[in-house]
Design a protein that fits this description.
Elements lengths: L1 H6 L1 H19 L3 H22 L23 H31 L4 H14 L1
Helix pairs in contact: 2-3, 3-4
């Protein structure tokens, strides 16, 4: 049993990270914590993709004479992870900028307070 867990440690870690990020994203009203939860979910997906392309004892995918295709590490997940990191940084920057604007408008980063103040503002109009 322990051997199976050790073989699957990257997948188990990815699922745990994704679960923690998911719970943080949906249960905390604080916008900063929601952004952190989203980043945890991103990291879990990156770990999962990178571990899918890894082969124990594998070599870089430079074709050599006499080598089998099963001996090479798959480069596609690495490219997906690099692209995903760029997208994750961009969305984090966007969400942080929006959070700053909401804080300047409502003087809170608590989503419940922001929604309550937004509804009060609409009711007065």
């Amino acid at each position: 049993m322990l051997e199976i867990i050790l073989q699957q440690r990257y997948y188990i870690t990815a699922v745990l990270l994704f679960s923690i990020g998911f719970v943080t994203l949906f249960l905390h009203p604080n916008l900063i914590k929601k952004i952190i939860g989203l980043n945890l979910m991103d990291t879990a997906v990156f770990l999962f993709l990178a571990s899918m392309g890894y082969i124990e004892g594998g070599a870089a995918p430079i074709v050599e004479e006499g080598a089998k295709a099963t001996q090479y590490i798959n480069p596609v997940p690495d490219g997906l992870v690099l692209t995903g990191i760029v997208v994750a940084v961009s969305t984090t920057a966007l969400f942080l900028a929006l959070t700053i604007r909401l804080y300047r408008q409502y003087h809170s980063v608590n989503l419940d307070v922001i929604l309550m103040l937004a509804w009060e503002g609409k009711a007065e109009e």
